[in-house]
Design brief:
With 133 residues, this protein is of the alpha+beta class. The chain has three helices and seven strands, in the order H-E-E-E-E-H-E-E-H-E. It has a seven-stranded antiparallel beta sheet.
């Protein structure tokens, strides 16, 4: 399945489809990096996709534009949570691939938190590994 993951190497955006308990699919546009035949996605720990993946690791992924319009074919996979050194290494790959965009997002996040009393409670990123089946 490593070959299959390589098709996403150049993708800037992908649509990640996760599933509610009822089986209803939910699509979300995310950034992706590929490393060693595994696709990685970063997201907020408070996102709906994190909750859905905890309940059902089954996912589908397809290349898309930034608005979510599908531009590639769907691939089935399973997601798992990544932590520790592996997560830090993958976050470095995101910084390499999305450099300026990532910085701008960080600045916007800081601006949105200005004036809030509980700024130290900034949520960290969760890294998800998607292994295609």
């Amino acid at each position: 399945m490593m070959e299959r993951a390589k098709q996403f190497t150049g993708a800037r955006y992908v649509s990640l489809e996760t599933f509610r308990r009822s089986g209803v699919p939910v699509r979300t546009v995310v950034w992706v990096v590929e490393d060693g035949g595994i696709l990685y996605v970063r997201t907020s720990p408070k996102s709906g996709k994190v909750k859905r993946i905890r309940n059902d690791p089954r996912v589908r992924i397809a290349e898309s534009n930034f608005r979510g319009a599908i531009t590639g074919s769907w691939a089935d996979g399973a997601a798992r949570f990544v932590a520790g050194d592996e997560a830090n290494r993958i976050l470095g790959l995101f910084r390499e691939k999305y450099g300026l965009q990532l910085k701008v997002l960080g600045w916007l996040g800081k601006l949105s938190r200005l004036g809030r009393t509980n700024q130290s409670q900034r949520p960290s990123m969760v890294v998800l590994a998607v292994e295609l089946t």
